[in-house]
Amino acid sequence: MLNIRVKPFVPTALKHVNILKQFLCPISPNTEQTRERHKHWAPKWKKLRREKFIKVEIPDLTEKAENMTEEQLRSKMKERGLIPPRPWMERPFNLTATSEIFEAYVPPEGDGKLSAISGEGAKQKLQFLEKKSKSYLAVRKIRSYEEDFDATLFAEIAQNIYINAHEGLGIKDKYKLRELVTERAYPEMMHNTHDKTIRWKFIKSLEPPRLVHARCTSLIDKENMFGQVTVRFHTQQTLAIYDRFGRLMHGSEILAKDVLEYVVFEKHLANEYGTWRLHAKIIPDWLPSRQPSIRTFISSEVRNTPLKIEYQEQVEKN
After folding, report:
1. Is 259 left (phi over 0), alpha (psi -120 to 50) or beta?
2. Is there a domain that residue 265 lies in?
3. Of 12, 217, 255, 279, whose CA is between 20 and 30 Å from 29?
4. Using CA atoms, how far apart are residues 147 and 276, in angstroms rounded to an integer?
5. For residues 206 and 197, is the Cβ–Cβ distance under 8 A?
């Protein structure tokens, strides 16, 4: 038998309505509509995601540590999980230079004034030869590190270092001074030079510079060797120091003076790239005291009198 399906009669107006329904409601009657899944793919972090907003305790910025006791500071740091600062008890030290003069040279009294022909001058020459034995051994030790070291030539090199260092001090060239002087001599040379003008000039050498003393020593390790050489300078130079107002405090730019100095130069012999630098000056005990610098102060009368300004007289004049 043939199964014949007979389409029901649908009016023309209803056909248009059915067509519109297909476009407006495209869901098939055979499919079931379900809700979409919005859960996170990793549920193990669900608790942490729930607690991602944490209440933060803002510290009281008005509190000052100076007004708090030690116990309050300790409890505050304990709340925040901070460790109290440890006092710094270590003392820094420098290995590129020594902090003193080892076996300093003792200048003979009256040096530079006695003639070699006189009895006292000949005695000084004899004492100088007696003290040379240790210096010869030290020079040999220096030559084991520096093959080209020569005492006569080094005296001229030391004089150039001496002149360049003092010229750098006059213009306050800190970078130049750090290359020419050691870490011990730098603060001593720069002390009390603020707001002052220094005029220094080297004129000539009255006697050729000569090496009078040499010593070597080691620090921490035997291989860490330092060498110190004392050079005698008898020169003529001028020095004038002005304060911040341009007033002369010490010396003169016109008057030249004869200066006898014993300058110590040091080198880190263990350092392959070490250089000779100005380390210190030896001031003998028999040297007379220097002339003190002229300083200006505010007069007590001017300081105690109050400043009076008469406005009426100024108005009348105007």
Report:
1. beta
2. yes
3. 12
4. 14
5. no
C-beta separation of 114 from 124 below 8 A: yes
Indicate which CATH number applies to the domain containing 198. 3.10.450.240
DSSP string, 106-169: -PPTTTTTS-TTSHHHHHHHHHHHHTHHHHHHHHHHHHHH-TT--HHHHHHHHHHHHHHHHHHH
Domain assignment present for 14: no
Which domain does 241 fall in, by range? 119-293
Please indicate, yes or no, if residue 222 is contained in any of the structural domains: yes
DSSP H/E element including 213: strand 197-218
* pLDDT score recorded for residue 201: 92
Question: Is 155 within 8 Å of 231 (Cβ atoms)?
Answer: yes
Task: Write out residues in the chain with pLDDT < 70, as ranges.
Answer: 1-35, 110-131, 291-318
Rounded Cα distance, 207 and 262, in Å: 13
CB distance 261 to 207 below 8 Å? no
Mind listing the pLDDT tens digit for each residue in 62-84?
888 888 888 888 888 888 888 87
- The residues that bridge with 268 in the sheet, in sequence order, are 226
Would 311 be classed as within a structural domain?
Answer: no
Residue-level pLDDT at 157: 92
The pTM score is 0.62
